[in-house]
Amino acid sequence: MYSFVAGAPKGTLSFATDGPQALGARTFSTMAEATQYLQTPEYQKLKRMITSLQLTQ
User: CA 13, 35, 53: angle at the middle one, nearest 5?
Assistant: First the structure.
């Protein structure tokens, strides 16, 4: 699984994992289940943490 962050000061950043079966990876059986997860406190906390990251030199 690859994630990309565009617009970084020195170009695009990318992150990779071993894939959906990586230890601790969350998977969903349906799109509805995944959409419901977006409303959970766990997701909100993770989103705040990830979006608070700042690039420094």
Answer: 30
pTM: 0.55
| Within a domain: 26 | yes
Confidence band for 17, pLDDT divided at 50, 70 and 90: low
**CB 17 within 8 Å of CB 23:** no
In a domain, 57, yes or no: no
- Does residue 56 lie in a domain region? no
Task: Show the domain range for 45.
Answer: 2-51
Euclidean distance between CA atoms 39 and 51, whole angstroms: 16
Q: Which residue has the tokens 């962050």?
A: 5
Cα separation of the two ends of the chain: 26
